[in-house]
Every structure is written in structure tokens, then in C-alpha cells.
Amino acid sequence: MLVLHAMSETKNQQVTVLGAGTMGHGIAQVCAQAGYRVVMRDINDAAIARGMEGVGTSLDRIVQKGKMDAATRAAVLSSIRTTTDLVDAVKDADVVIEAIPERMELKLETFRVLDASTKADALLGTNTSSLSISDIGSAVRDPSRVIGLHFFNPVPVMELVEIVRGEKTSNATVERSRGFATSLGKKSILVRDVPGFATSRLGVALGAEAIRMLEDGVASAPDIDLAMELGYRHPMGPLKLTDFVGLDVRLAILEHLTREIGPQFTPPELLRKMVAEGKLGRKSGEGFYKY
Predict the structure, then answer these.
(1) Is the CB of residue 56 less than 8 Å from the CB of residue 14?
(2) Do the two domains 8-192 and 199-284 of this chain adopt the same fold?
């Protein structure tokens, strides 16, 4: 039976998650399950409602599997407060995790507000999958407390948190982040702040090659995926995973890595074509598969 962690250090701490989308509400859920007081913020009530609905649906699946009872589900939901007010969301936070869209200008704008509105010792994390932690940290006066906390989708299921150390991130912030990941029941890896970090760089390289194989008629999408699922024990093939993440997200990461690292990350033309046609994967109902 899954229960809230009884760790005293979590019960008196607030985690604020900025963004109620797929990643944001997943992060909010696992923090609430770990016993933290959680505030989830998005720009409007509709986005928040969708996020809370996502948390509820995820918890329902856990209850149906017999890993959580109804009382615990209710307690997890009740420990998540929502707001559209950014300053209100972060002013009492011990940990802030930003999970807003992958646009540097938005992140810099947000971190300027965090610099002015958070407690001086609040840990400032970003869930970015590819943008520079050092650049994001430049928006605050004390970049030693800024760090990458890259979670994976679906957050309640995936065990990994990729901790990304910026140029000015302190040792204390790194150790605090490791402890935070452990408190959520996650395992962490520590990587340097380079384009694509470790996971995005490897993940999109595999996904892009799978798309090129499909483009060249090497095999069908199901067979390419099955090759990796059965031959290499990947839980999800690279094309299914691209559908799950979003073809537009994968395209943006590849374009960023092409600029920062080199032409080996040039996006396949098939990926560009599908994004232009609105075939973005699960969220649009069609990608390499239909949903």
C-alpha cells in the first residue's frame, strides 16, 4: 500500500511547481505523495483545472492497482494548493521547480521574479530538458542556488531525475538536490551543463535515427520500435516515445543541439514535415501512430 512518506523534513517544507502541464502536474503529484506541501501555479484557471484533473486521473490508476487507498488519494490531492499568482506561489517556497514551456525568454523572465520574490535560501530548480542552466541562472543575483532538476514523463512512474550543475551552482545546492530527489523516491544522476545534458542528447539521437530509418524504408514504425523493446529491453520504442514526448518538442531539441553542437543532430525531414502537418503525437491524436 502506497502511503505518504512520514519524513518530518518534508512535512514542514513547501515545494512550488511552476506549470500545470504534463510535467508540472506530475512533479506536483510526486512531491505531494512524498509529504511536501505543494503549490502548483499556472497562468490561468483552465490550465490549473487540467493539471489537477491529470493528478486525479494518475492517482486513480494507482488506487485501481491497489497501491494506494482512497484516503491517501484524498490526502495527496488536498496537499496541492493552486494559484495563478506567481509571487504568491513562490514567496514561502523552500524548493521551486520551474516546468514552463522551453523558451529561454520565458524562463529568464520567470527567474527574475523568483530572484525578487523567493526566500534567500530557496532552491531554484528548472525542469528544462536542454536549455543552459548557467544562462537561466544569470537571471538571479545568487546563481549558486540554481540547478537543473530534469524529471521524466510520466513523472510518477519514471525513477530518474537528471541533476544538471550550472557553472555557478554550489556544492551545497547539488547535495540538497540529491537529497530532494531521494526524498521523492527517485534516483539521480549528476551531469555538467552542456547542450542536451546526457539524457536528451542520447534520447533524441536515437529517436532521430529511428525516424531516418522509417524515412528510408528500413522497416515499419512498429518493427523499429519492437527491435529496441525486445532486442535492447527498452520499455518503449523510440518512435512511440517520440509520440509520447511530442514531435514538436523533439524537433525543438534537435534544432537547439544542431546550433550548439553540430550537424549530427540535424532533424530528419520527415519530422519537420509531420510537425508542419500538426502530427505531434499523442497530444494531437496522430504521430507515428494514431491515438
Answers:
(1) no
(2) no
Sign (positive/negative) of CA torsion 265, 106, 42, 18? positive
Domain range annotation of the chain: 8-192, 199-284
Reported as a single tens digit per residue, the pLDDT across 44-53 is 999 999 999 9
DSSP structure string for the chain: -B-----HHHHT-EEEEE--SHHHHHHHHHHHHTT-EEEEE-SSHHHHHHHHHHHHHHHHHHHHTTSB-HHHHHHHHHTEEEES-HHHHHTT-SEEEE---S-HHHHHHHHHHHHHHS-TT-EEEE--SSS-HHHHHTTSS-GGGEEEEEE-SSTTT--EEEEEE-TT--HHHHHHHHHHHHHTT-EEEEEES-TTTTHHHHHHHHHHHHHHHHHTTSS-HHHHHHHHHHHS--SS-HHHHHHHH-HHHHHHHHHHHHHHT-GGGPPPHHHHHHHHTT--BGGGTBSSSB-
Q: Which amino acid is at 142?
A: D
Predicted TM-score (pTM) of this structure: 0.89
Peptide bond into 235 cis (omega under 30): no
User: What class is the 8-192 domain?
Assistant: alpha beta
Distance of CA 265 to the CA centre of its chain: 22
CA angle 246, 252, 258 (to 5 degrees): 135
CATH architecture for the domain at 199-284: Orthogonal Bundle (1.10)
Q: Which three cell numbers stand for residue 170?
A: 554550489
| pLDDT for 12 | 85
Mean pLDDT, rounded, of the chain: 95
